[in-house]
Amino acid sequence: MRIAVDAMGGDYAPAVVVEGITAALYDFPEYELTIVGHLGKLAYYLEKYGIEDHPRLKKVHAEQAVEMSDPSTVVLRA
């Protein structure tokens, strides 16, 4: 099973998101995870938790992020 995770969303992201992904990689060896976010901002945390080259982790770069304050209609049109 492959699970995609938005690394840039939520409180204390991306630090706690990468921490959770690390735990999932070790607790659920049958899962493959895809982390989506700004790879420049994620690099420190991926290295900190030692999963930057994990074989079951795929990284997808996302240059932009939708903020909570962004009106949904504007985001969908753009």
Key features?
three-stranded parallel β-sheet, single chain, 78 residues, 3 helices, 3 strands, alpha/beta
Characterize the structure shown.
It is a single chain. By secondary structure, the chain is an alpha/beta fold. It has one domain (2-63). 37% of the residues lie in helices and 21% in strands. The chain is built from 3 helices and 3 strands; from the N terminus they run E-H-E-H-E-H. A 3-stranded parallel beta sheet has the order 1-2-3. The protein is elongated and about 40 Å long. The model has no long low-confidence stretch (mean pLDDT 93).
Nutshell version of this structure?
With 78 residues, the protein is an alpha/beta fold. It has helices at residues 15-27, 39-48, 72-77; strands spanning 2-6, 32-37, 57-61.
Layout of helices and strands:
Elements lengths: L1 E5 L8 H13 L4 E6 L1 H10 L8 E5 L10 H6 L1
Parallel strand pairs: 1-2, 2-3
Which percent range describes the beta-strand content? 15-25%
Major sheet: size, sense and barrel closure? 3 strands, parallel
User: What would the average pLDDT be, to the nearest integer?
Assistant: 93
- Please report the number of helical segments: 3
E-strand count: 3
Oligomer: single chain
What low-confidence regions span 5 or more consecutive residues with pLDDT below 50? none
Query: What helical percentage do the residues reach?
Result: 25-40%
Strand order of the largest sheet: 1-2-3
N→C terminal distance: 31 Å
The rounded Rg comes to: 13 Å
- Domain tally: 1
Shape: elongated
Structural class: alpha/beta
H and E string: EHEHEH
